[in-house]
Amino acid sequence: MSDTDWEGRYLANDMPWEKGEASPGLVDFLATHSALPRGAVAVPGCGTGHDVRAWARAGFSAFGFDLAPSAIGLAREKTEGAGLPAAFEQCDFLGGEAPQHFDWLFEHTLFCAIDPARRDEYVRAAMRWLKPTGQFLAVFYMIPDTDGPPFGTNRDEIITRFSPGFELLQEWVPRSYPNRTGLELMMWWQRR
Q1: Mean pLDDT throughout 19-38?
Q2: pTM to 2 decimals?
Q3: Percent residues over pLDDT 70 in the chain
Q4: Distance (Å, rounded) from C-alpha 189 to C-alpha 104?
Q5: CA distances, 106 to each of 42, 54, 109, 145 (Å)
C-alpha cells in the first residue's frame, strides 16, 4: 500500500494524523477571535472532520473536502452525531474546480501531505477557492523531513510560495498536539 493511498490507509485504520480533536491552534484562534464576520469556510483534506466541526461550532458555514470516501463517511457520521451543521464532499482540491468561492480556507496537514512538487498547484487552488480578499488560515508543519508524507517545509518556502497572491496578516507558534509542540507555525493571510 502506498503512503498516498489515502483511502487504503483509512480502510486499514493507518491514520497517524488522526488526533481525535481539532487543531489546538484553530480552537484557540476561534476562541480569541469571536468577533470575526461569519462566512463560508472550506477545509480541504479534512479527514474525519474535527476542524470542520470546530468552525461549525463557532458559527461558520463549514465545508470539508477530502479525496478518501471513507474520510468523508466518517466525517459525516461524527458531525451528525455531534448535531452540527456542516457539509462534506469527496473532492480533489488541487485539480478540481471550487464548488463555490469561500470566505475562509483553513489549512491543516494537507500542505505537508502532498508531494512538494505539487505545492504550486496548492497555492493556485487556494486562490481559486477563495473569494477576492478571502482569508487563508494555515497551520504549517515545520519539519525537515523530505521522505514523507508528511513532507517538511520552512518559513522561507511558505513566504516565497504564498506572498505573490496573499498578504500575511499575522504569524505565531500555536498551541499544538503534544507530539507537535514547537513544530507548527500558524499564519493568517488575506488573498490579494
Answers
A1: 95
A2: 0.94
A3: 98
A4: 10
A5: 6, 11, 10, 23
